[in-house]
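User: Run a structure prediction on this.
Assistant: Running it now.
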Amino acid sequence: MTVVEAAQIYVERKQSLGLSYATSKRYLLSFSKQVGDIPLPQVTTLQVLQFLNGHRTSTVTWRNKYRLLEKFFEFWQARGELLALPLPPIRPACPQTFIPYVYSRTELRLLLRGNAI
């Protein structure tokens, strides 16, 4: 089975379950186009990494694509089409840069009264 065939079957299966699967379909078709119409077991970790590291890909998008490909490959591994998942190590999550400020009771009272802090 080729990557293109596997992607088409996988998307049709998801859509038959009632999912719209539009964005995921676009990602899978883009992936299959990038790696070419090769047999599914011939997909390499490097090919997957090249797809994930596409032009201007944020960490969030990278991780979303990674999870999609992980589920896609697991689906085919469970059906005997793949022996191992050709996935690179997952990229760490984005560090949280926002530091919340917690107002004191006095500051809240002043704010609610309309007084400046």
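The first helix runs from residue 3 to 16.
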